[in-house]
Write a structure and sequence with these properties.
By secondary structure, the chain is α/β, with parallel strands linked by helices. It has one domain (about 1-255): Vaccinia Virus protein VP39 (Rossmann fold, 3-Layer(aba) Sandwich). It is about 35% helix and about 20% strand. The chain contains nine helices and eight strands. It has helices spanning about 1-5, 20-30, 50-55, 115-125, 155-160, 175-195, 200-205, 205-225, 230-235, and strands at about 40-45, 60-65, 80-85, 100-105, 125-135, 165-175, 240-245, 250-255. Strands 3-2-1-4-5-8-6-7 form an eight-stranded mixed β-sheet. α6 (about 175-195) crosses α8 (about 205-225). The radius of gyration is 18 Å and the shape is globular. The N and C termini lie far apart (about 50 Å). The model is unreliable at about 1-10 (pLDDT under 50).
Length: about 260
């Protein structure tokens, strides 16, 4: 019962019902070029449960993770550190200090997304790189009350271009196995939404909708896992890929570089 009450916003690998989301997120971490990690100072903005950090921190010279909650299963030390932080402001973090900033599945939760981008650019060293992911609004199956907003492809490109002149926005896509799962999920969600005759998913305030959303979202994942356990558990991060951006991607994968002469 606890599994279906837990918020769906902090994915991990501890239940195979969440495997699709977990592997989708793992792919993003694996897509970071090694040249942006090896011997580099890394800041992870919104580390969540910390599984990405656990995968990659040994490649970096120094890894600082920030979030409003400390990951329960991660042991920190001089090399791998944690700092409490309430976004969008990176309070106490010096400017021009990190080679690489990672911000995965965070910006959609932040009211002032421009402030977050300004802050991440500020703490990057000149020539440093930001890697950012966020869901594609066009592929969302229902309103997510934990998200302040989601972005259509053009709006994502416009937002990034306002802050970084050297940036690319690619799409994260799934293969046939992933998209079969996506379509099964879509059908289940559509079945559930038939009962929402008052369109409460759009009319209720986000704060009132979050509990119901978490319950139904995780219940739906558990049902899919029971119906198709092999597909659910069998999805790997290698079933995802980066390709040129279009409206059918699952997530955006942003690579943005601070100009070498920009302090």
């Amino acid at each position: 019962m606890i599994a279906i009450l837990k918020t769906a916003e902090r994915a991990d690998s501890h239940t195979y019902a969440n495997n699709y989301i977990y592997q989708r997120h793992v792919f993003a971490y694996k897509a970071i070029p090694s040249s942006s990690l090896h011997g580099k100072t890394v800041l992870e903005v919104g580390c969540g449960e910390g599984y990405g950090m656990e995968m990659l921190h040994h490649q970096a010279a120094q890894w600082l993770a920030i979030d409003k909650k400390k990951p329960a299963r991660v042991e920190f030390n001089d090399h791998k550190q944690f700092q409490y932080c309430l976004l969008p402001h990176l309070t106490g973090i010096p400017s021009n200090n990190f080679d690489t900033v990672i911000c995965f599945q965070v910006i959609e939760h932040i009211e002032d997304d421009h402030a977050l981008l300004r802050e991440m650019k500020r703490v990057l060293k000149p020539g440093g790189t930001l890697y950012l992911t966020t869901p594609n609004k066009m592929m969302s199956l229902t309103r997510n009350p934990f998200h302040v907003r989601e972005y259509a492809p053009v709006s994502m490109q416009v937002l990034i271009a306002k802050h970084f002149h050297r940036a690319s926005v690619e799409g994260i896509y799934g293969n046939d196995i992933v998209m079969d799962y996506y379509e099964a999920n879509k059908k289940n969600v559509q079945r559930i939404l038939k009962f929402d005759v008052l369109d409460l998913q759009h009319n209720l305030p986000a704060a009132l909708l979050r509990g119901v959303y978490s319950l139904m979202n995780n219940y739906n994942r558990l049902q899919l896992a029971r119906k198709s356990p092999d597909i659910t558990a069998g999805i790997l991060h290698t079933d995802f890929q980066l390709k040129p951006l279009d409206s059918g991607c699952l997530d955006y994968f942003v690579t943005a570089r601070k100009h070498p002469e920009e302090a």
